[in-house]
Design goal:
This protein is mainly α. The chain contains three helices and no strands. It has helices at residues 11-19, 33-42, 69-75. The longest helix is centred in the middle third of the chain and has 10 residues, at 33-42.
């Protein structure tokens, strides 16, 4: 079974899809990227998130008290990392 990738083998992703939940659809919480990314990281909808729009010349930021799903996972023994972009 493949998870849609034809050129690169993804045995671990394929195993996750076969044994667990397969992610097939996504819905955005905002029309622009910064608040959508904030909602993805925190689980908050844009009405409760500190990031409500793309910043104009300054980086958007989560507040110090915002809890991300990486922090929740880390507290349960998972190792987490950050890569990608913000802003």
């Amino acid at each position: 079974m493949t998870y849609g990738q034809k050129l690169i083998t993804t045995p671990r992703i394929d195993r996750l899809a076969a044994e667990g939940l397969k992610f097939t659809d996504a819905y955005f919480t905002a029309a622009v990227c910064a608040p959508s990314r904030a909602s993805l990281l925190t689980g908050l909808h844009t009405g409760h998130s500190a990031v409500r729009a793309n910043p104009d010349g300054a980086p958007g930021a989560l507040k110090a008290g915002d809890t991300t799903f990486a922090e929740v996972l880390r507290a349960r023994g998972y190792r987490t990392a950050v890569f990608g972009k913000w802003g």
